# Entry
Amino acid sequence: MSMVASEAETSDLTCKTTCSLTDPTFIWYKDGRLLTTKTIENNQLHLQTVSSEDAGSYSCAVGGSQHLRSTARSLGVRYPPKSISVSISHSGEIVEGSSVTVTCSSDGNPPVKIYTWFKEGGTSPVGSGQNYSIISITADHTGLYYCEAQNDHGALNGTVMVSVKSRSSSAVWFAVGGGSFLLITVLICICRINRKKRRSDKHGDENADPNAKDDTYAALQPRSSDDVYQTLAVSVSSQVLPLDL
# Structure
């Protein structure tokens, strides 16, 4: 048969014997180990302020007959939720359109069965249950969420921050990055074309015919003496050569 106590209460465990003893000394054990830190008055083990650490299996014996221990009795301690933990399923950056689940867990006795989810700034719950899922999340879901874990002896809150990155931000970064890449590609192509053109012009100059006539003389055609003189004068002026007529 088990015993039950609530946290922060006072509880007394009593040891009885059928033997007729004069002023016996009683010894107490918890989980098979001798208790030396608790208050023992006559045949009672006094738990001044019960805590969850007091839960366990208790037995007693009469001094001098420690080998004759009583049957062990289990003490259960009821307490409100403790050590609440809130986690988010999505690792890394949360982008609009993703699905996100937040999970709440807590230690309590009896076990926590009521979980309620709230969003900071709101007055009504946004969900219930140990898990709260948001399907196709948007930037409007960004905010601080808190979970309330509750059992018959109390409640405790835990929080988690949900930050959602807008798709428009991602699109802008993609456009800027893509535009930069395109611009760099175009500049590289222009440089390559100009380099190729310079090499082609240089190659053409090296292969030119050294016996080819100068364009100035190739332009001479049978015309009137005035025209010839005018043509020669212009040609000589442009070539800066002496000319005797």
About this structure: The helical segments are 167-206, 215-218, 225-239. Residues 170-183, 212-245 have pLDDT under 50 and may be disordered. The longest strand covers residues 73-88.
